[in-house]
Write a structure and sequence with these properties.
Among the domains are: 98 residues, no CATH class; 96 residues, no CATH class; 84 residues, Jelly Rolls (Sandwich), CATH 2.60.120.1440. Helix 1 crosses helix 2 and helix 1 crosses helix 3. It has a 19-stranded mixed beta sheet that branches. 20% of the residues lie in helices and 35% in strands. By secondary structure, the chain is of the alpha+beta class. The protein contains 7 helices and 26 strands. This is FecR domain-containing protein.
């Protein structure tokens, strides 16, 4: 194997597995661009693509070559975000597991969403979208409210100690975390000193509680918590969505309250989604064990299970929940498996801080795929455009059209 071919295989594998550095991605794109007039180089690119180190083949050889040729062609064009060649037929030709469908689009730096659609017009052309405006992605933004009512905008606050609550210092770190440190856990029954952190639409934040538990807060979410845990339990309350890595302390169970439901743990990793505009509240367990209960029901979750609570208070346990989908937001991704356009757009609305409306008939399709949350709104919607969904962006409003 030549040194260049070995390098290409490394670059493709790093890119595919999302471990490539920015310099490595640039290097890969430059090689693809340079292949325009180099037959030998083009052959090496094809060979490296064919030998991606994956657990099982994702595509049959013919379709794999079609896809790579499309990637190469798109990378030779300027302004190519939406110039994606559709499949030659109307069948899904990329499968991962039972329902997943991904197209690796190298020039864009993301996984393209492909729909497992109920209906599609094979004659419908996919045209380049020229949004009137665009919307930038969200970022680390949050408002901290102390027990005395004082508020601190964390996105504007300088790094270092922001305030004190008793013996606890509230510190903003360089990497954008809020850390409650050096306070002593209480054992008496005194009233806890409560703080609240709220992320706006288009915001997210991470904090470390006084006991060492870590919390990631998604957009449009609120976490109420004590500056120092007192008594025999550790209790917090959320609206919206949060991911927890709870510090183990068998003597002090950790409890999360949301929508008249309590999740109790000793030490574990789990995600809790409790938005008011979602039909169900979902608790997904990644590690350890949790007990979920409300007035009507209680159950113990095992890793990989998800509890889905509807508005009537009924809980359904899903044994083979897709944990990656549930926590992708924490890792900077939109990720969907068989999701409706409405579900996708609710997430987009919270992250981009936009309003969403629909013109005509709402597309009856399901989508599977993933893309970075760091892209502009038009780029996320461009992936849906490839799957036959039209859109319009005007100021802070997105319209989904027939």
């Amino acid at each position: 194997m030549s040194a260049l071919n070995a390098r290409l295989r490394y670059l493709f594998n790093s890119y595919y597995n999302q471990t490539a550095t920015e310099q490595e991605r640039d290097e890969l794109f430059q090689i693809i661009h340079a292949s325009a007039d180099d037959t030998e180089l083009t052959g090496l690119i094809h060979e490296a693509w064919n030998n991606l180190e994956i657990n099982e083949p994702l595509f049959d050889p013919a379709k794999s070559m079609d896809m790579l040729n499309s990637i190469i062609e798109n990378n030779k064009q300027e302004d190519n975000i939406y110039k994606i060649k559709p499949p030659d037929n109307n069948k899904l030709w990329i499968k991962l597991g039972a329902a997943a469908a991904f197209l690796l689009f190298v020039g864009f730096g993301a996984y393209v969403l492909v729909n497992t659609e109920k209906e599609r017009d094979p004659k419908k052309n996919i045209t380049k979208v020229e949004p009137v405006h665009d919307v930038l992605p969200g970022g680390n933004r949050a408002l901290l409210t102390l027990a005395n009512g004082k508020t601190i905008y964390l996105d504007d606050a300088k790094n270092g100690v922001l305030a004190k609550e008793g013996s606890t210092r509230i510190n903003k770190t360089r990497d954008g975390q809020l850390v409650y440190e050096d306070g002593q856990n209480g054992t008496d029954n005194s009233v806890p000193v409560m703080n609240t952190i709220t992320t706006p639409r288009g915001g997210q934040y991470q904090l470390v509680l006084n006991d060492g538990s870590k919390v990631w807060l998604n957009s449009a979410s609120t976490l109420s918590f004590p500056a120092v845990f007192t008594g025999n339990t550790r209790e917090v309350e959320i609206t919206g969505e949060a991911y927890f890595e709870v510090a183990k302390n068998p003597a002090k169970p950790f409890r999360v309250k949301a929508h008249r439901t309590v999740v109790e743990v000793l030490g574990t990793h789990f995600n809790m989604m409790a938005y008011n505009d979602e039909a169900v509240m979902k608790t997904t367990l990644l590690e350890g064990a949790v007990k979920i209960s409300n007035n009507n029901y209680s159950s113990i979750l095992k890793p990989g299970q998800q509890a889905s609570l509807n508005q009537s208070g009924q809980i359904r346990i899903i044994d083979d929940a897709d944990a990656e989908d549930s926590v992708a937001w924490k890792d900077g991704l939109f990720q969907f498996t068989d999701a409706s356009i409405q579900s996708i757009m609710r997430q987009a609305a919270r992250w981009y801080d936009v309003e969403v409306s629909y013109e005509g008939q709402i597309p009856v399709r399901e989508f599977t795929g993933r893309i970075s949350r760091n892209v502009k709104a038009s780029e996320l919607l461009g992936m849906l455009k490839y799957a036959g969904v039209n859109f319009r962006i005007e100021d802070k409003h997105i319209t989904i059209m027939e």
